[in-house]
Each structure stands twice: as C-alpha cells, then as structure tokens.
Amino acid sequence: QVQLVESGGGLVQTGGSLRLSCAASGHTFSSYAMGWFRQAPGKERDFVAGISWGGGNTYYADSVKGRFTVSRDNAKSSVYLQMSSPKPEDTAVYYCAAFRASNAAASSYGRRATYDYWGQGTQVTVSS
C-alpha cells in the first residue's frame, strides 16, 4: 500500500512559480511510477506529468511542456512538480498518483485507470 499526500498548493501570480510536493509512505516508493493530474471545476481530471520509478523517463501533457518539471527523490519518498510560468488556465486541484510497474508504456502514464493510488489533492490558483 502507498499513501500519498500533496502539499505546496496555493495562490500564485503569473510571474511567479510554485513547487508541489507529494510525500509517499512505505518502504517501496522506488518501485512505483508516479504521475500528476489536475482537475478544474466542471472538467475532467487530466494528465499533467509522469515520471518512471527511477526518474529516468518523464512525460508531459502538451499544455505544460516547457513550463512544468516533474522530478522525484526516492531517498525522500517524494515526487515534485515545479510549476514555472504559470497561467490562469493552470488553476485546478492537482493530484499525485502512483502505480507499480516495470517498464510501463509511455501511453500508460496518461491514463487515469493506470494508477492504483491517489492523493487528496491540493488547490493551485493562478492569478493575473
């Protein structure tokens, strides 16, 4: 079992930056691939970024490429989402998610059904 807790959300202006953190419990964190999703009111929960268990492979939604960076620190059992050049349309609840897999297909990261565990979410609001 993996328990995920997001933190770092809040209000940020378009000229600022924000780093979301996701802390995982347990001793098998490094065996899990991780992803970030977001959901705005009235919209679907969409994929934002993913990272393989070793951190060697990262994946991004087209809408955030070049602006967001996903990383992980297995020693700290944490995954991060660095949000640079945020836009008002980035406003959403951001969720951390995990699945246990080996050599998962790149397309798997973008599917909600791939993930076995989800955090409670953290609100990010971007203002002009």
How would you describe what is shown here?
The protein has 128 residues and is mainly beta. The protein is built from no helices and eleven strands. It has strands at residues 4-7, 10-13, 17-24, 32-39, 46-51, 58-60, 68-73, 78-84, 92-100, 117-118, 122-127. The strands form two sheets. Strands 2, 4, 5, 6, 9, 10 and 11 form a seven-stranded mixed beta sheet that branches. The termini are far apart.
How would you sum up this structure in a few lines?
The chain is an all-beta fold. The chain has no helices and 11 strands.
Which secondary structure elements does this structure contain, and how are they paired or packed?
Elements: E1 4-7, E2 10-13, E3 17-24, E4 32-39, E5 46-51, E6 58-60, E7 68-73, E8 78-84, E9 92-100, E10 117-118, E11 122-127
Parallel strand pairs: 2-11
Antiparallel strand pairs: 1-3, 3-8, 4-5, 4-9, 5-6, 7-8, 9-10, 9-11
